[in-house]
Amino acid sequence: MNRKDLVKLIVENAYRNQDGHIASALSVLDCIDCLYQQMQVGDEFILSKGHASLALYVILLKYGYISEAEFFTFGQFDSRLGGHPSSRKCPFVRFSAGSLGHGFPYAVGRALAKKIAGKQGRIFCLIGDGEANEGTTWESALIASTYHLNNLTCFMDFNKSGERAIQLHDCVDKFHEFGWSAERIDGHNEQMIQKAAVYQTSSPLFVQLNTIKGKGIPMMQNNPAWHHRWPTSEEEYEKILLSISD
After folding, report:
1. Looking at CB atoms within 10 Å, which of 15, 48, 158, 213 has the fewest?
2. 210 SS3 class
3. Confidence (pLDDT) at 166
């Protein structure tokens, strides 16, 4: 499945079940796809930005972890696939993401545990830029550098939606000051994401993904009205499908 196919599936699922954060899912879709291509035995992926769950679920579908029938149970009663991922319900979810800001501290703990136990494998955590407003983000960054967790990579979905609350401008220099290796890349460029996923440093690695919220659907791109919205009529649904770009 190519990106356009994945976007169509996300939109169809949200329309069928009248639920989901489509635009948020589309800004992280490329990162999650690339990570699932790159991850080795012992690696773990933690989606801290839990409301972007449709992106995770469509990638689980793409790589055969769940069936298409289960994918379309999203948000339904007794489904394993909730609006926010649950590790208690779905074995392919590492962390139950609810309120923003908790996945990153968990990822730091997992990376530290691997270090102490001498186990191989990397921890990849995907956070949103809004999570930079949480104190736990910076406490976690400090702990990770203190313990030299070079088995930890934190990707930030920097789609700037959080800047309606606090102007971050850029987080690369901030993480660098906390003792991390840090870089910014195009969050929709597959080669750049894959390169970042295998990059080895002596310190934890922060990667700022410069992304477009709602990437691939013109009416949703950087449009706050689509943060938690889905097509509500067949006409709107068909219009969106026709507008999807690569």
Report:
1. 15
2. strand
3. 76
